[in-house]
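Hi team,

As requested, here is the filled-out complex form for the pyridoxal-5'-phosphate run. I kept the field names the same as last time so the parser does not choke. Let me know if anything looks off before we queue the next batch.

— J.
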Amino acid sequence: MGAKLSQQLPKQPTKPNVSPAVAAWTIEDSERLYRIQGWGEPYFSINAAGHVTVSPKGDRGGSLDLFDLVNGLQQRSIGLPLLLRFSDILEDRIERLNACFAKAIARYNYAGSYRGVFPVKCNQQRHLVEDLVRFGQPHQFGLEAGSKPELLIALAALTTPDALLICNGYKDQEYIETAILASKLGKTCIIVLEQIEEIPLVIEVSRKLGVQPIVGVRVKLSSKGIGRWGTSAGDRAKFGLTIPEILAAVEQLRSADMLNCLQLLHFHIGSQISAISVVKDALREASQVYVELVRLGANMRFLDVGGGLGVDYDGSKTNFHASKNYSMQNYANDVVAEIKEACTERQIPVPTLVSESGRAIASHQSVLIFDVLGSSEVWSELPEPLQDEEHAIVRELYETYVGIEADNYQEAYNDALQFKEEAISLFNFGHLSLTERARVERLFWNCCARILAIARQQDYVPDDLEDLEKMMASIYYINLSVFQSVPDSWAIDQLFPIMPIHRLDQEPTQRGILADLTCDSDGKIDQFIDLRDVKPVLELHPLQPEQPYYLGLFLNGAYQEIMGNLHNLFGDTNAVHIQLTPKGYQIEHVVRGDTMKEVLGYVQYDAEDLIENIRRQSEKALADHKITLAESQRLLENYERSLRSYTYLST
Ligand SMILES: *Cc1c(COP(=O)(O)O)cnc(C)c1O
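And here is what came back:
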């Protein structure tokens, strides 16, 4: 009976509805599923071959097949994981931001101009900063430094005449002196007072040097940001001066005869502001502080609205934390309109507008590509038919299994759960053999697979079945360290769009989570972008023997690289700078990832010492006849080769 029954069961219980009437999977289905238009436009899309393509110049034409590109790089022995940086995207982002402000300025008849800066902390890589400065030249785009080392970068890199160099962060005498002296090199450094203690320091240093600096103040607004970085503003914010402190600063500068130095008002209400209403509130408050400072006699010329311009990681255009409910143009319009209104009301000249957008400029330009090493499934094989002398619990679970229908699947789920629990306690008391327990477990997972297949077809999934998707998820093992390459996914649950970069003309029939190479149970990705909220699993293709499977993680160009750490000693990944050419692409720079020798060096191991150590141990084993000469040579060669090679697996 059992055998007959099992023949009647669908061969693919996860897809019981497969019938010839169902249309074949298309790349449009993949577009919808991975929401690539939502987060990827105008840079990423899918071509007819089912590969992700990159159009680094946005709407201005030219595109590359990402899968072919990665294969081409592999042939140049630039292995995975691999960070691709598209300098054309960076240029396009700068162009866009400036175009949005130019449009807003024209639309509102704004009498001032826009002079943006890039906050270096967002991505300090030399090639990227140099590109930024170059692409920013036509717009006099500047840099923002948030620390002494970043100031050193900015001072050397920023050569654009009249571009601003905004000096934020904690400052000591050396920082202030360097910034003030740099004005003698023709740079426009603006020292932004962030702490009350910095005021006398600035006064003293500028007296000593006999140079009048341009000074700004960072205000602690009472309008709060929202979400993760909400505490960047408000009275308890780490940086900035409260209103009484700003008044004290004005008085101190006035008595030092330096009030004319105070020319900029700065605020920053946090990163990834997802609601435009929050931006507006902050702008309204800051605009009033600005006009009041003018009234107090400061020589105000700049309003610096900080960062916070969001990135739509999930493409939902909502105020969800991984999204934003406004466009770059909306943002520019609001900045321009709010300050214009405040200034017009008081009949004072409008300021030059400065923004410090980091995330919105740097995120899109890099793509992380990694390969899947293998996968494991909780469920794969169909249950064996019942045998003659089967344990009662196995029999009951089997009956549950064959009886699962659309009208009883929820009840069947509860039954299956209960039988499984019973089976485990029977086992614990010695009443069930290991073989019987194995049969129970396999039956249980088969029940779950059928129930899940039915649940997925329903409009509404009962709460107690929601975890089933997670329980049944495959694990895809990825050649990557989340801690090194996507730290914000681990540290603050940030979402990034992730999808296969090929096979997109095939239906991804598996649902999985991603597990990384580290021995850490946190080294995984189990939250994925979705239109509503987040998905606990990602749709993936079944792995094919001997065929690579490449995934791309997108929009990760801001903050991830520098915040990455060496957990388990997985080092920096290879990075390649790609530029579009009329005939294809050109590799501008290859930045090789860390070798094992390098990461071991970070924790004070010397490669020569290590080799010598192994050599001595080999000699001893040789003398003791525990190893042959050929074996010991092979061991040493492997050891030395490993030291020179990449920390990731070579596949
Ligand atoms: C981090 C930071 C920025 C950049 O913010 P984004 O949200 O990445 O644009 C700008 N200004 C200051 C002061 C910052 O601390």
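Two things worth flagging: The mean pLDDT is 93. The first helix runs from residue 2 to 8.

Thanks,
J.
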